[in-house]
Specification:
Oligomer: single chain
Mean pLDDT: 93
Structural class: alpha+beta
Order of helices and strands: HEEHEHHHEHEEEEEEEEEE
Shape: globular
Number of helices: 6
CATH architecture: Sandwich
CATH class: Mainly Beta
Length: 270
């Protein structure tokens, strides 16, 4: 079964470039982790998590509740309403107990005892939990999002307390996240398309470690949770509390032009 899953994922990767949206939907079930050091990609939940566990990250799948399916179907062609966002958050709700369980499953401890504030926020930005809706982003907004979230960054309060993050990908795709791995390696995590009849992806990770995202599917929804300190700020600096030499960079994205470009192979720096 594991071999069949890997073969299916490989077929999805080959299908995507030539087939546009139809190919995007064909990536359903794909989970792939690629590396800037050139090692072979890891494919499938088990192999990917074996690597990501070293930095406190875990990917899992989640059943889509029946009540959410009409909203997810609507999201294919339009932005969802504020009321639908609330319904979606309710359908994929995570209690304090659930959030602590996600942290434990990823091999971490909460940054704040018992999970801290469940409505943490970045100053000037809506608090968590919230929904990211690709249909609400025009071309200029997407460029802004890519420039903000594409480079590796860390999220923590003024006193250095990090946040714990849980992203549930409930519609659309494929999606890409990045995580700094041991040895100054950046892992590029590709999560395949999620349709109304499929399963959602869930990523649990520590905001205090360098990470990033390239959110660019034609349509899609992410139910986003973060918790810990009352508020936090995003940090891109080379001088950072994570001790990362890669923070603020990302070899998987070409930032040289006006529009950031996601790369199939990492920049080498030559």
């Amino acid at each position: 079964m594991k071999l069949l899953s890997k073969l299916a994922a490989a077929v999805a990767v080959l299908w995507l470039p030539a087939q546009g949206l139809a190919g995007a939907e064909g990536t359903a079930g794909l989970l792939k982790l690629e590396y800037t050091d050139g090692r072979p990609a890891s494919i499938g939940v088990e192999d990917v998590n074996t690597v990501l566990h070293s930095v406190g990250v875990r990917v899992s799948t989640v059943a889509i509740p029946d009540q959410a399916r009409p909203i997810l179907e609507a999201s294919r062609s339009r932005a969802i309403t504020a009321e639908e966002e609330e319904q979606l958050i309710s359908g994929f709700a995570l209690s304090r107990k659930d959030l602590l369980a996600e942290i434990a499953a990823a091999g971490r401890k909460p940054t704040v005892e018992n999970g801290g504030s469940l409505t943490t926020y970045e100053p000037g930005v809506a608090p968590y939990p919230k929904v990211y809706d690709m249909n609400k982003m025009d071309a200029d907004t997407r460029v802004w999002v890519h420039k903000k979230f594409g480079p590796l960054h860390i999220n923590h309060a003024e006193d250095g307390t990090g946040i714990d993050e849980v992203m549930t990908i409930v519609s659309g795709g494929p999606w890409v996240w990045f995580f700094e791995l041991p040895g100054d390696v950046i892992g590029k995590l590709t999560l395949g398309h999620v349709g109304p009849e499929g399963e959602a992806w869930r990523i649990s990770y520590p905001g205090i470690r360098p990470h990033g995202g390239f959110l660019d599917p034609e349509y899609g929804l992410v139910v986003a949770y973060a918790h810990g300190p009352e508020q936090f700020e995003i940090h891109f600096g080379a001088d950072n509390i994570a001790g990362s030499r890669l923070n603020g960079t990302n070899a998987w994205i070409d930032m040289s032009g006006d529009k950031p470009l996601l790369l199939d192979a990492p920049l080498t720096g030559d």
